[in-house]
Write a structure and sequence with these properties.
Layout lengths: L6 E5 L4 E5 L8 E4 L6 E4 L5 E7 L8 H23 L1
Antiparallel strand pairs: 1-2, 2-5, 3-4, 4-5
């Protein structure tokens, strides 16, 4: 039996985990899984080659939670900085 590598990518900003058991460049179409919001990635032959697990981190350690809470402050600070330079 041939050994195959699975590639795993974790995106803390998007709160996703991506797994590929084939070349990601072969991705052709994506569809939502039937019983979750996860995404199945398929090639041109409609064969599953990857999976995106959405909401990978528990809410307690969701990195984006902190950024979302501070988003308005960050946007206002950006505007002030841009106006200061004008």
């Amino acid at each position: 039996m041939a050994k195959e590598k699975i590639k795993i990518y974790i995106d803390p900003y998007g709160n996703t985990l991506n797994m590929w058991w084939d070349d990601p460049k072969k991705s052709y179409i994506s569809e939502e899984a039937k019983h979750s919001f996860d995404v199945i990635v398929k090639d041109k032959n409609n064969r599953a080659i990857g999976l995106e697990k959405i909401g990978f981190f528990p809410k307690e350690i969701d990195p984006m939670k902190y950024l979302r809470d501070k988003a308005q402050f960050l946007l206002e600070a950006k505007v002030r900085l841009l106006n200061k330079g004008a």
